Amino acid sequence: MNEDRFILTKRAGILGVIGNIFLLIIKAIIGFTFKSQAMIADAFNSAGDIFASLMTFIGNRIASEPNDEDHNFGHGKAEYIFSMFIAISMIFIAGKLFYDAVCTLILGSTLQFSWFLILVCIITIITKLALFLYTKYIYKQYNNILLKSNMKDHRNDCVLTTFTLISIILSAYQIYWFDSIVGIGISLWIGYTGITILLESYNVLMDISIDEKTRDLILDIINSFKDVKKIDSISSSPVGAQHIVFITICLDGNLSTFDSHSLANTIEESVSLLDNVYKTIIHVEPI
Question: Which of 122, 186, 201, 123 is nearest to 156 (CA)?
C-alpha cells in the first residue's frame, strides 16, 4: 500500500508540473499583453504551483525511502518539511500580488479586454478542475499532506480563475476596478491557504499527538483485554502521515513474564492495524 501511495503521489506531482507550466506560459503572455492584473496574479499563482508540484515530487521521493540505521522510523516527515516550503512560497507570492493589486487599484487599471483572456480562463478552469479531482481521489485513499497541499492549490485555482473570468467580462463594460479587487482577493486566498498548510506542517514537525478519534479506538482495543487492569499512559509521535504509539499498561503482578509479554505483543499487533498507527510500543507494569 505504501508503494502505491508513493507512486501515485509522484504521478500527481509530475502531472501538476506539466499542467502548471502550460498554464503559466499562456497566462503570462496573455496577462502582460492585455495588462490584466487578475490574469498576471493568476500567472504568478501558477508559478507557485509549479514550485509546489516540484516540492511534492522531491518530498515524496525522500519520504518513500525505507527506514535505515540513521532514520529508524523512515523518512515520512519529509512530507511535512517540503509542505512547509510550499506554504512559505505561497505566503511570499501572496504578499507580492497583494502589493501589486493595491497599487493598480489606487493608480488605475490599463486592462484591455480580449477574448483571448476569456479563452485562457476557460482552459485554466478545465485543466485545474481535472487535476483537482485526480489529486483529491488519491488523497482520500492515502491521506498525504503533500497531496492535500496540491489538491488545495488546484481547487483554489478553479475558484480564483472564475473570479478572474468575471473581472475580464466586466472590463468589456468599462468596469476596470473589479480586476484589481480580484487580484487582491487572489492574494489573500493564497496567503490564507499558505498559512493553513504551514501551521499543519509545523504541528506535525513539533510532534503533535495522535487525533482523538484514533486515541479512542486505541483505548477501546486495550480495554477489550480483560487482563489489562489499568492504562497508565498513552503518548505518540508522528512519522509522516502516521504515528508511533507508546503505551504503558498495568497487569496482574502474578502473571508470568511470558504471559504478560505475550499479551503486550497481541495488543501491539491489534493497535498497529489502525490506519494512523505506524508502530506500537507497549511497556508492562505489574500491580
Answer: 186
